[in-house]
Amino acid sequence: MSAVKNYANLESSSVLETQGGEKSPPKIGSVRTFISAIEGLGQDAESVIFYRGHGNVTYRLLPSLYRNPGWIRNEHIIFHELVLRCPTDFELSGSTFNILVKMQHYSLPTRLLDITTNPLVALYFACTGGGSADAEVIVFRIPKDEIRYYDSDRVSVISNIGRLPPHSRFPKKTTIKKFNENEDTIKLVREIQREKPYFEARIDPNDIPSVVCVKPVLDNPRIIKQDGAFLLFGVDEEKANPAEVPEKYLLSNNEFRLIITGKEKGKILEQLASLGITRSTIYPEIEHVAGHISAKYMDKI
Fold first, then answer.
1. Taking the CA of residue 91 as centre, how many other CA atoms within 13 Å lie in the half-sphere pointing to its CB?
2. b/e per residue, 247-265, with b = 16+ CB within 10 A?
3. pLDDT of 172-221, one tens digit each?
4. What are phi and psi of 286, to 5 degrees?
5. Which of 175, 177, 232, 178 is nearest to 208 (CA)?
6. Using CB atoms within 10 A of its CB, is residue 239 exposed (0-12), middle (13-18) or buried (19+)?
């Protein structure tokens, strides 16, 4: 909790703001104060710290799929339509999870939420979204033994939920035997076995409503540059209800929040650029590099 104490002790009037006479979380207005706020977090041998930048402090920890009811209702169609229309882009993707990662890359709604081990990358994303609203960098501490790799069976189970129709349901508070006799569970097993023919026709009911931190294959320059990983969201009994991030993963709470002052976003982006964190380094694809160069040399009118 030393980071919480350090954060609470920041005394700069440009960082601390209050509303209505009540004490509110201190707000960050520069890269320096951001680094000061997280320097006490540290690492330990049993866990990994991840970050996520939200352009608006009111944003919820939800994957893009759950930001519009039409997307979750048509998740299975979106998935198949993209693969159908762009087969050459997905022929070497392999697992359903790898396909989801590529869909995320192309901004399609998925049940993935991007996170990063680089706090400055998270700060960049917090400052590029949400307009002039206050932003937030959310901090996670995830036990190493709960982090999964792209080929994990649990990852396959949750990823393939996306292939099922919207009415799919998974019973709670039942035995493993009855759970695996459920019609939708049987359909899910069949989808998993398409990528893993050896997968045993038996799913742990606890896997369905979980949120899993997944390390992807580093075959994507954007993931490499962003030090990226993902939170993969299961469902709470039915597809319309997303699983929730376990509270034990969250370092961000009522006592410790990294709130970014909205009016300082531009200044912070300039400071990040001096540290090599820019659009062209975060998004290394040529169109983004070109856009960064164009903006850099454009007269401000």
1. 4
2. eebebbeeebbbbbbbebb
3. 989 999 999 999 999 999 999 999 999 999 999 999 999 999 998 766 66
4. -60, -35
5. 232
6. buried
d(CA 147, CA 160): 18
Reading phi first (left if > 0) and then psi (alpha if -120 to 50, else beta), residue 179 is in: alpha
Domain range enclosing 39: 2-281
- Total of domains in the chain: 1
Identify whether 219 is part of a domain: yes
Specify the pairing of strand 258-260 against strand 27-28.
parallel
The residues, ordered by sequence, that sit 6+ positions from 32 with a Cβ below 8 Å of its Cβ are: 271
Residue 8 lies in a domain: yes
Question: Who contacts 177 (Cβ-Cβ below 8 Å, separation ≥6)?
Answer: none
Alpha carbon dihedral 49, 263, 25, 279, in 10-degree steps, equals: 0
| pLDDT digit string, tens, across residues 48-98 | 999 999 999 999 999 999 999 999 999 999 888 887 877 776 665 578 998
> Does 15 reside within a domain?
yes
Beta bridge partners of 50: 140
- Identify residue 290 by its one-letter amino acid code: A
